[in-house]
Design a protein that fits this description.
Blueprint lengths: L3 H19 L15 E2 L5 H4 L29 E16 L4 E19 L2 E12 L2 E7 L13 E21 L4 E22 L7 E24 L4 E10 L2 E14 L5 E9 L3 E3 L2 E10 L3 E10 L16 E10 L14 E15 L2 E17 L10 E14 L6 E16 L8
Antiparallel strand pairs: 1-4, 2-3, 2-19, 3-4, 4-6, 5-6, 6-7, 7-8, 8-9, 8-10, 9-13, 10-11, 10-12, 13-14, 14-15, 15-16, 16-17, 17-18, 18-19
Length: 433
Amino acid sequence: MQNKPAAILFITIISTAFYNASAQKMINSPYARFNLGTLEPVGSFRSLGMGGTGIAIRDNSSIYYSNPASYSSVDTNSFIFDFGIDYGINLLSDGITRHFSDDMNFDHLIIGFPLAKGWGFAAGIIPFSNGYYSISESILEGDPEYDPITGEYNEAHRGEGGISKFIAGSGIKLTKNISAGVNMTLLFGSVRRINQFNFTEYLNVYHNNNTERLQLNGMNFDYGLQYSASLKKNYFLNAGLSMTSGKNYKSKYEKIAFRYNYYGASDTISRSADSSRVFIPATIRMGMSFGIKNKLTAAFDYVLTNWSEATLKDSEGYLGNTRAMLFGVEYIPEKFSNSSYLRRVEYRIGTHLEDNYLVINGEQVKEFGVSFGIGLPLKRTFSQANLFFSKANLFIDYTRKSGEGGLLHTENYFTMGASLNLYDFWFMKRKYD
């Protein structure tokens, strides 16, 4: 197909524009009120269907950007294009009241292709954090909190924006069993928070509005290693290690407080700006995978970040160190079956257990989740020598967030995602057209 590069370029431009226009995921989470917002899970939808594992997985038709050493497994002459959309539902509960919110959003855009045999390249744009929340309360006469001096009032807290990440990296085979890789990463975006108090009983009073905005940008690097061993009877064993170095990012923090009244008069109470750098600490990831080639993959990852070392404006006391354990399994009944489509489907299951980086009143938020996924082949030839695997990856994840002591509210977060993973041989000269 002679127009494939033009088609992919067109889809890339449209998808990137759509990402920039709709990157705000409007899932209401009060936990997004702190730090950089809620951190987004790392990995493509194939990875998320396996609990988020991927540090030690090598696959010639998918991109595992959490370890750039995996790029060396991309097939010579092939091209991989992966973009996805997810739908999230968040159910909040404090034991008395419940709240529901949902939203559909563009999630990621990733491409990958070989530079030479055993040497691959990948690039993409992915979410890093989401700062959206909306909390409001009205105090009316007769409520326990009502004060005749203050009168009735409305209190509203809103957050918007988020941080995105652009990655571009390369992975190369150093020996038959060892691969290494590096990603250049660009963090960019801003988080804005608004706190508003309106007095509704009196006209001749001033209402209050406090707004803060944190803008962040900068470049960093991910480094990765993988060891792969082929064992007897098509068994394999892989080990992986990757690290994102600690980094001081450029930032701009603005805070403004002003008052206004019913008649339109307003004045600024205070205004401040701070351009000191934001430090985000290093992340270390370790993983192992084993199984049967083209049949079964079982994976385990361990991820740690000392977020208590971070320097974020107005986040002192709200940051805790994170540890995450991720487990995942993928099973393919018969990858090269010519007679049964269902036997070529990839079935996935996973779980993840982790500490959230948010600490409130000395209580760290904990997360537990389970995930399921499938890979649906879209097209293939019946020749293994000229395999064409494009697939739709679907996953469902349930994550529960709550405090250790049960004093914080509980979030039951459901995510459903669908991505197209387009894979083809693009750079091969054809004898016949």
